[in-house]
Design brief:
Order of helices and strands of chain B: EHEEEHE
Structural class of chain A: alpha/beta
CATH superfamily of chain B: Ferrous iron transport protein A (FeoA)
Number of strands of chain A: 10
CATH topology of chain B: SH3 type barrels
Strand order of the largest sheet of chain B: 4-3-2-1-5
Number of helices of chain B: 2
Number of helices of chain A: 29
Helix content of chain A: 55-70%
Strand content of chain B: 35-45%
CATH class of chain B: Mainly Beta
Shape of chain B: globular
Strand content of chain A: 5-15%
CATH superfamily of the domain at 2-160 in chain A: P-loop containing nucleotide triphosphate hydrolases
Largest interface: A-B, 40 and 31 residues
Largest sheet of chain B: 5 strands, antiparallel
Helix content of chain B: 10-25%
CATH architecture of chain B: Roll
Distance between the termini of chain B: 9 Å
Number of strands of chain B: 5
CATH architecture of the domain at 2-160 in chain A: 3-Layer(aba) Sandwich
Shape of chain A: elongated
CATH topology of the domain at 2-160 in chain A: Rossmann fold
Oligomer: heterodimer
Chain lengths: 668, 73
Amino acid sequence: MRYALVGNQNCGKTTLFNQLTGSNQHVGNFPGVTVDSKTGEIRGERGDCVVDLPGIYSIRPYTNEELVTRRFILKEHPDGIINIVDATNIERNLYLTLQLLEMHIPMVLALNMMDEVRSNGGTIDIGKMEEALGIPVVAISAVKNEGIEDLIHVIKDVSQRRIYPKVMDFCEKGAVHRCIHAVSHQVEDHAERIGISPRFAATKIVEGDHDIIENLHLSENELDLMEHSIVEMEKDSGMDRNAALADMRYDFIERVCRQAVIKCLESREHRRSVRIDHVLTGKYLAIPSFLLIMLLVFWLTFGVIGTFLSDLLSMAIDWMAAAAERALVEYGINPVVKSLVIDGIFTGVGSVLSFLPIIVVLFFFLSILEDSGYMARIAFVMDRPLRKIGLSGKSFVAMLIGFGCSVPAVMATRTLSSERDRKMTILLIPFISCSAKIPIYALFTAAFFREYQALVMMGLYVLGILVGILSAVILNRTMFHGKPMPFVMELPNYRFPSAKSVLLLMWDKAKDFVQRAFTVIFIATLLIWFLQSFDSRLNVVTDSGDSLLAMVGKLIAPVFAPLGFGDWRAATALISGFSAKEAVVSTLGVLTGTSMSSLGETLGEIFTPIAAVSYLVFTLLYTPCVAAVATIKREMGSLWKTVCIVCMQCGAAWIVAFLIYHAGRMFL
Amino acid sequence: MTLDQIAVGQEVKIVKVGGEGELRCRLLDMGLIPKTVVKVQKAAPMGDPIEIHLRGYELTIRKEDAGKIEVVF
């Protein structure tokens, strides 16, 4: 048996999924789109699995989430649907339920947060609800793990015995009723041929859903006849087709609720939310509190916990590397193989793993922000300034994370609801200066601008943001032309995030990163090791200036001559910066043959102060590191687009560095 | 009168939902249909978007879009 779990956003769907499946989850992607597809085996029910479909409000063909949901239900034919609804917000939640009922698949309604309704003096008559909707209804509390056993039992029962929803007629006698019935009659044969319910086909035809209409292969004549009855209905009801159907559904829901629901007075949870919102979305306090919260997350992630765990991890790796080295030396192994294992594999693994603690910790905080309901408030508060560059409020969080590290920032774009916003944000993130570039800035500013160190650093950050905004504006006018997704967003009550959901998300992200990024990053570090260790005749190099990497550096150095740093050592350092930005500093050290402490003086021989600025600007803007590129490829789902992004960044870096170098020479 | 002109704290009834395409469908799906009672809860710190209360939940929409919803007291 396979069940689909469907529901609105913010109704506790993920929590229920985690309760149903425990940790037996498999996270993947729906084909062709970046929408997570989670499947899991139900605990204690061998062979029964449940698919967590994205949170949606309606079955329309607009967003990827909606398309994925309906394709899954219509094409994959699940044995049953578990429709979870938020009992505290039942009217709007039932809107989706009615559309699911029309699809005519065995279904159970899971009334979540019933405990909250009851504790606030409200109640829902389950019997009357079942009668009105024609499907079994189970009261549950996903957070408290109540009613879950019952739910599993009922969904198994209706699916095995193929008990279909009994009610599908939501229209009272009148114009809409006549129209839907006429259309369903006409479309019956076609609908049955492609295996969908005639009632569902009819409402979708009335709503003008092209996706379904095309699939039905209707003749011109049939379409005309249907259009005729729809126009008739619009005339008689005084509403256009979309409004008439929405009105029909909400009318039915209101009738059901009048019979079965005793609403509570304003709930405690709502009053609490309003109080919190006085501060968090208040006129004067909203932005300061947002900055404070983000600062705290940042400081904890990159400053306290992340660094601590990273240090711990690198200590463990160093220890293992040292042990392996001792063992290999004792064994008397070929020095090249030893270098491969120690400098190649251990360094490679180390560079991958050093990102891991930061990702895990950051996603711990992000999932708390998301699950508590604060992320929606950020979108609400920050919408206006970001709309100007064609993005919406939620992109802001991902971009802020970019100041720490591009890898989790790109991963965090998953929370954005529109594909367009997601892609555009991913494009902008690499322009935001990540923390791995700080050692480069520190080295150069100390060597060249001792008195203005802070000012130059600040300038670089601001420049990154400005170039980002500029490219956003350009992209908005060209590649991503067209309207951003409508901003119609629910502000859910604040809730305590469930520990299980937070932990599972952290686990998912960590696994995802290690699995997917490992291979690419690993191969790239091995490649760099190879280029550094051998010369053109594949002899092991003694002088790093003879290596293949240096050859490549010498080859591309002329490209940078117009930017003021045509020296091959500068170019080679840039290439090695692709594996990790910190490597720029160490490579410069190795190639100039100086220790870190005297590196600053040596740089004075390679760079003039203006050239140093130009070099810094170039490192600020050029290609993100291999870990970030691997993540971008994963989130964009296309190698070609990823290559385009890398080229675009390098191009932008070259142009901006060129302009700054020549402007600087003119004025100084 | 349109919804964007309503002062914070006031309650109004929807008469007609304008706009077109995806935006309009979204508004209808979220329960913004004629005869629905809506209360303007607050505006974002920079004045836009606004937060409204309807059918027992909170929704935010941009002022520009609220301008397409006709309401009466």
